[in-house]
Amino acid sequence: MDQLNVKEQQEFQQIVEQKQMKDFMTLYSNLVSRCFDDCVNDFTSASLTSKESQCIAKCSEKFLKHSERVGQRFQEQNAKLMQGNFK
């Protein structure tokens, strides 16, 4: 990034932020879709049942923990790759 001028750094930062937002929205969309499909079965009421609410809470927690763990593993692998490149 040191080789970029101020304008290029700003453009790069904007691209990174857009990518992060896109990734977040994809994660959120996948979470909603998966947990809704798995947990909501009764469409006779506009409200969720307590069972559905509990299911969604557990599903969301599990999904986010899984995503966090996968992210950690990618970071670990990336760090190993970077160490290998500098030896």
Oligomer: single chain
C-alpha end-to-end distance: 22 Å
What is the CA-based Rg, rounded? 20 Å
CATH architecture classification: Orthogonal Bundle
Subcellular location: Mitochondrion inner membrane
Pfam family, one: zf-Tim10_DDP
GO molecular function: metal ion binding
Membrane topology: Peripheral membrane protein
Keywords:
single chain; 87 residues; Helix Hairpins
Strand-helix topology:
Elements: H1 6-39, H2 50-85
Helix pairs in contact: 1-2
Q: What does this protein structure show overall?
A:
With 87 residues, the protein is an all-alpha fold. Helix content is 80%, strand content 0%. The chain has one domain (6-83): Orthogonal Bundle (Helix Hairpins). The chain contains 2 helices and no strands. Helix 1 (6-39) packs antiparallel against helix 2.
Short description:
With 87 residues, the protein is mainly alpha-helical. The protein contains two helices and no strands.
